[in-house]
Design brief:
The protein has two domains: 172 residues, BirA Bifunctional Protein, domain 2; 46 residues, SH3 type barrels. Helices cover 21% and strands 35% of the residues. The protein contains four helices and twelve strands, in the order βαββαββββααβββββ. The chain has a seven-stranded mixed beta sheet, with helices on both faces. It has a five-stranded antiparallel beta sheet with strand order 11-10-9-8-12. Helix 2 runs antiparallel to helix 3. Bound molecules: biotin. The site of biotin has 20 residues, from helix 1, strand 3, strand 6 and strand 7.
């Protein structure tokens, strides 16, 4: 498995778009100057405090791709601790706090899967973020950077191969996502409503029931009703 290690970069996703295409190549940096999150947000990217990795993969035009890679990241983290779970569309949480996020992007010739995992940020450093967040160290979880990266690399490649052959099943996500089957609050664009989360469909949409009507959500924020 080939890995390009960088001391510093703007964003590993951007570097993964600039490099010549090579399926499976992983770009990792110790620090990102402009780490990016979903929905135009930034991603905390201080030197050595997180795992910032992007994978160059053969392009797949399946809408479920971005949801599916959450399963690969979850599998990696569950090797360290069994309490991790998924939150649609592809965040990994532990005890109500986000520990990892994924930014999937496409160019003409490739899929770039960018994974950020908070490793050793202290609780105070994660306090002013938009969502409650944590890190492996803050949760008392021990890890080895190289082992974690190797396992992530393997799981991402395996998941890509399964997506390609059509053997990925959205149930794999549902099983690990406690939102499913619960009353949730959906926030998207200018609306906010209560609904029941029913499941994830083959396009990766979150299917919810609202006043007897079925709605498929492709983006937005969903949280368990407080
Ligand atoms: C999110 O939850 O909003 C997605 C966060 C994705 C962050 C990772 S860190 C490595 C890669 N490079 C980036 O600029 N973003 C992704």
């Amino acid at each position: 498995m080939e890995i390009v290690f960088l001391e510093e970069v703007d964003s590993t996703n951007d570097e993964a778009k600039r490099l010549p295409f090579k399926h499976g190549l992983c770009v990792v940096a110790r620090k990102q100057r402009a780490g990016r999150g979903r929905r135009g947000r930034s991603w905390l990217s201080e030197a050595g405090k997180g795992l910032y990795a992007s994978f160059i993969l053969e392009r797949l035009n399946l809408p479920i791709v971005s949801v599916a890679f959450g399963v690969a990241v979850l599998k990696t983290l569950k090797e360290l601790d069994n309490r991790f779970y998924l939150k649609w569309p592809n965040d990994v949480y532990i005890e109500g706090k986000k520990v990892s996020g994924i930014l999937v992007e496409r160019t003409k010739d490739r899929l770039v899967v960018g994974v950020g995992i908070n490793l050793s940020y202290g609780k105070e450093e994660l306090q002013n973020l938009e969502k409650p967040a944590t890190s492996l160290s803050a949760e008392g979880i021990e890890f080895n950077y190289n082992t974690l990266l190797k396992s992530l690399h393997k799981n991402v490649l395996e998941l890509h191969a399964r997506l390609k052959e059509g053997s990925f099943n959205p149930r794999e996500f549902e099983r690990e996502c406690p939102l499913i089957g619960r009353e949730v609050v959906v926030v998207r664009e200018n609306e906010r409503f209560r609904a029941r989360a029913l499941g994830i469909d083959t396009d990766g949409a979150l299917v919810v029931e609202r006043d007897g009507q079925i709605t498929r959500l492709f983006s937005g924020e969903v949280s368990i009703r407080g």
